[in-house]
Specification:
Elements lengths: L4 H4 L1 H16 L1 E2 L9 H7 L10 E2 L2 E2 L5 H18 L3 E3 L5 H12 L5 E5 L15 H5 L1 E5 L10 H11 L3 E5 L9 H11 L2 E5 L4 H5 L12 E5 L10 E5 L4 H12 L5 H14 L2 H23 L3 E2 L8 E5 L9 H10 L2 E2 L1 E3 L13 E5 L1 H5 L4 H16 L4 H16 L9
Parallel strand pairs: 1-13, 5-6, 5-7, 7-8, 8-9
Antiparallel strand pairs: 2-3, 4-10, 9-10, 11-12, 12-15, 14-15
The structure holds D-serine.
Length: 417
């Protein structure tokens, strides 16, 4: 019981060590990922993982939960203060469970949801037909305008009037522009729908004050905690007090059993970190970096969906430069050069989701490691050079070395080495 991990399982230690090297030596540009702090990871790997605590603070189905109650209450109070919300449930294991719980709380199977289609930047749980949401609910989807590649609120209002949804979801995983939550509230009110904001991608930006705030306008807000919010993997649901009981009952016992108190405690730590002044600086820099990266990529001849970004991510349309190069191939070529992105459909994509015509890039991770505007220009140039020379392995290898050099100036997790 007291042996070190290295003594018990050197094999798994070696795997983690390899990924530490990968995380250190690569430019990690997947916009939904981040480097959690040492403090977050310390408590996540702690003895708090040993306890069952079904229920909520003060009303558990297990004994011995007094310190679990303290940890969960602290996470709840910190989240409430950070986002200025009336009620928070910190138990959802992941973003999908959080959205599932909201639907379970507010809807009946067969009710209509209006949400963004996955192919235009939404999420699987926003009604995709391979997901529970598309299977159990009647989905009306909105997308972006073919010309501007932005959401057109007049179209959303028209779709709402036509389909009379019981719930409208505003939020995306691949939308580089701001959401005007006040306008969404107006549409929801026009048909008497609940308004859910899924802010998984932009939660950190909102907490950092660099994205419009959904709280005054939305009935319920879901988010993961490991993206721009930079906490441990997990999720939470925020809502007005009037929905608190329904939401809590939907999470437990509706959908989940025992909460993961080790990650809930790690969420508490992340919320503390996010309430410190440095976090605001970090979020502002994330957005500044994204704008510089986007501008340089455009200067280098790439087309970005909607012409740029207002947040932490951008979608590159490869077809404008390389008609035959798919997103999947581009992501693999970039990985050869030490640059990690993900393939992503672009609006009105002619290719399938497994192939795609685009890649999605974001700045949360490279900003966490301390990179600023000058490095964004280098990153854009590395991407450009790697894609230009995608058939030349020697050049990609050479770029990989230059990427590694750049990364070595911005070390991560030095205490683990
Ligand atoms: N998988 C997440 C993303 O990459 O955006 C969404 O849940």
């Amino acid at each position: 019981m007291n042996k070190l991990l290295g003594e018990v399982d050197p094999q798994i230690v070696a795997i983690a060590a390899k990924d530490l090297t990968r995380q250190q030596d690569s430019l990690m540009l997947i916009p939904s990922e981040n480097y959690a702090s040492r403090a977050v990871m310390e408590i996540q790997g702690s003895i708090l993982a040993n306890k069952y605590a079904e229920g909520y603070p003060g009303e558990r189905y297990y004994n011995g939960c007094q310190f679990m109650d303290e940890a969960e209450s602290l996470a709840i109070e910190r989240a409430k203060a950070l986002f200025g919300v009336e009620h928070v449930n910190v138990q959802p294991h992941a973003g999908s469970q959080a959205n599932m719980a909201v639907y379970h709380a507010l809807l009946e199977p067969g009710d209509t949801i209006l949400a963004m289609s996955l192919s235009h930047g939404g999420h699987l749980t926003h009604g995709d037909n391979v997901n529970f949401s598309g299977r159990y609910y009647n989905i009306a989807a909105y997308g972006v305008d073919a010309e501007t590649e932005r959401i057109d609120m007049e179209v959303v209002a028209r779709l709402a009037a036509e389909h009379r949804p019981k719930l409208i979801v505003v939020g995306a995983t691949a939308y580089p522009r701001h959401f005007d939550f006040a306008a969404w509230r107006q549409v929801a009110d026009s048909v008497g729908a609940y308004l859910l904001a899924d802010i998984a991608h932009i939660a950190g930006l909102i907490a950092g004050g660099v994205h419009p705030d959904p709280v005054p306008y939305c009935d319920v807000i879901t988010t993961t905690t490991h993206k721009t919010l930079r906490g441990p993997r997990g999720a939470m649901i925020m809502c007005k007090a009037e929905y608190a009981d329904k939401i809590d009952r939907a999470v437990f016992p509706g959908l989940q059993g025992g909460p993961f108190l080790h990650t809930i405690a790690a969420r508490a730590v992340a919320f503390k970190e996010a309430s410190e002044p440095d976090f605001k600086i970090y979020q502002a820099q994330t957005v500044k970096n994204a704008k510089v990266l986007a501008a340089r990529l455009i200067e280098n001849g790439f087309r970005l969906v909607s012409g740029g970004t207002d947040n932490h991510l951008m979608l590159m349309d490869l077809t404008s430069k390389y008609e035959k190069l798919s997103g999947r191939q581009a992501a693999d070529h970039l990985e050869d050069a030490g640059i990690i992105v993900n393939k992503n459909t672009i609006p009105f994509d002619k290719r399938k989701p497994r192939t795609t015509s685009g890649i999605r890039l974001g700045t949360p991770m490279i900003t966490t490691r301390g990179m600023k505007e000058p490095e964004m220009v280098l990153v854009a140039n590395f991407i450009t050079e790697a894609l230009e020379n995608r058939q030349k392995s020697a050049i990609k290898r050479q770029i990989r070395e230059r990427v590694k050099d750049l990364c070595s100036q911005f070390p991560i997790y030095e205490y683990l080495k």
